Amino acid sequence: MAKKKPAASNIAAENRKARFNYEIVDTLEAGLALTGTEVKSLREGKASIAEAYATEEQGELWLINSNLPEYLQANRFNHNPKRRRKVLVHKTQLNRLAGAVQRDGMTLVPLKIYFNDRGVAKLELAVARGKNAPDKRQTIKERDWNRQKQRILKEG
């Protein structure tokens, strides 16, 4: 059974620069351990994962440097916007991800946070390798060529 892509309206936060700065090797869907005010803040769509990354510490996977702004109606029961959040993955997946990071020099980059069909917040995590300047230039060339190709097809 093929996985369905999340609808654009369900996406709470997206790291648009990740595919430009990194070569995506593999992706993984994981859960997030969130508090109630964090979920409400995510539903408002003001979260940012542009500088976020994931790391393995003491047998657990953590999302670091993600910014979920405070939920204004929560007053004193609010959360810390920059706190570390636990990423929920199976032990075998954690071992595979940690091995890729240690052996191959990869990094774990969050691509998007979205709500699935059941309304549960999910994190799309990528095992990625950093691109250098020539690779980035090639990506820009391909993007420009695709844009020109679409214009030509539209005119002709």
From TrEMBL:
Residue ranges the record marks as coiled coil: none
Keyword RNA-binding tagged: yes
GO term, biological process aspect, one: trans-translation-dependent protein tagging
Keywords: Cytoplasm, RNA-binding
A GO CC annotation given for this chain: cytosol
GO molecular function, one term: RNA binding
One Pfam family cited in the UniProt record for this chain: SmpB
Annotated localization: Cytoplasm
InterPro entries listed in its UniProt record: SmpB, SsrA-bd_prot, SsrA-bd_prot_CS
Keyword Nuclease among UniProt keywords: no
Family: Belongs to the SmpB family.
UniProt function note: Required for rescue of stalled ribosomes mediated by trans-translation. Binds to transfer-messenger RNA (tmRNA), required for stable association of tmRNA with ribosomes. tmRNA and SmpB together mimic tRNA shape, replacing the anticodon stem-loop with SmpB. tmRNA is encoded by the ssrA gene; the 2 termini fold to resemble tRNA(Ala) and it encodes a 'tag peptide', a short internal open reading frame. During trans-translation Ala-aminoacylated tmRNA acts like a tRNA, entering the A-site of stalled ribosomes, displacing the stalled mRNA.
Record protein name field: SsrA-binding protein
Gene: smpB
